[in-house]
Amino acid sequence: MYKNITQSDFIDSFIRAGRKDQFSHSALVALFNFMEESDPHQELDVIAICCDWTEYSGCVEAANDSGQKFTEEQEQEAFDWLSERCCIISDLPRPECRILVSAF
Asked: By CB neighbour count within 10 A (0-12 exposed, 13-18 middle, 19+ buried), where does 103 fall?
């Protein structure tokens, strides 16, 4: 049995699961849109999403979190490095200017 959910249902699922602080509101909207576009029939699993995605302030922070040594001036190089290894959602609305990176 399947139930179609709205963006609001998606966000509320994180709150009900005790994961309201896992992602910013903008990141949750971006995740919902990404998941709807990539496979609108997938099952919602809040814990799996929390394990599979991490929100960062930028590509340098994300790459350095995996052991790299990029400087703040190397944002494009960090983006290129990440792009070869994982999925990046980088079009989060302002003011956060953050990115989401899938698990390696």
From this structure: exposed
Whole-angstrom distance, CA of residue 7 vs CA of residue 30 = 10
State how far Cα 9 lies from the chain centre. 17
Q: pLDDT in tens for each of the 104 residues of the chain? A: 678 899 999 999 999 999 999 999 999 999 999 999 999 889 999 999 999 999 998 899 999 999 999 999 999 999 999 999 999 998 766 555 588 889 87
DSSP, collapsed to helix, strand or coil, labels residue 78 as helix
**DSSP per residue, 61-72:** HHHHHTT----G
Alpha helices in 1-104 (DSSP H): 7-16, 25-38, 46-52, 59-65, 75-83
